[in-house]
Amino acid sequence: MMKMIFKRLVALAFVSNMYTCTVQAENFSVTVKAEQWDMPRHGEILIKQSSLRDMVNRWRLAPASKIEIRYPGGEEGELWVRELMDWLIALGVPSSAMTGTPGSGAEDVINLVLVPPR
After folding, report:
1. Which residue, 68, 61, 62, 118, is CA-closest to 88?
2. pLDDT, tens digit, for every residue of 53-87?
3. Is 114 exposed, middle or buried (0-12, 13-18, 19+ CB in 10 A)?
4. Domain extents for the chain?
């Protein structure tokens, strides 16, 4: 009886460890171009964009990491990044896991960078 209880405890500890392990965020980044974004948007279409899907999937493997969103400056860039952040929230990324930073380097590009926790 004791041997059976011990085996179950060991199995439970193993399974518990599997679920508490997280993958460390790497230097992973994706780019969203204005032409990709310039279409009717809804969740199903957005998740088909490989760049956004890949970023959300990588973030889910390392939920303690942050997604830094580098966007073009100006009013248009502000509107674009706010809408993108709203869509990422709808796809399951909490707002606390994202930061917006002006300065993507081009007026028609947003760069998303997965930043590991410090």
Report:
1. 68
2. 899 999 999 999 999 999 998 898 999 999 999 98
3. buried
4. 25-115
Least confident of 21-35, 56-70, 92-106: 21-35
Pairing of strands 109-115, 28-33: antiparallel
**Could you give the CA distance from residue 42 to residue 44 in angstroms, rounded to a whole number?**
6
- Contact indicator for 63, 115 with CB cutoff of 8 Å: no
Domain 25-115, classified CATH 3.30.1330.60, yes or no = yes
Determine the Cα–Cα distance for residues 89 and 27; give it in Å rounded to an integer: 22
- Measured CA to CA, the distance from residue 24 to residue 108 in angstroms comes to 30
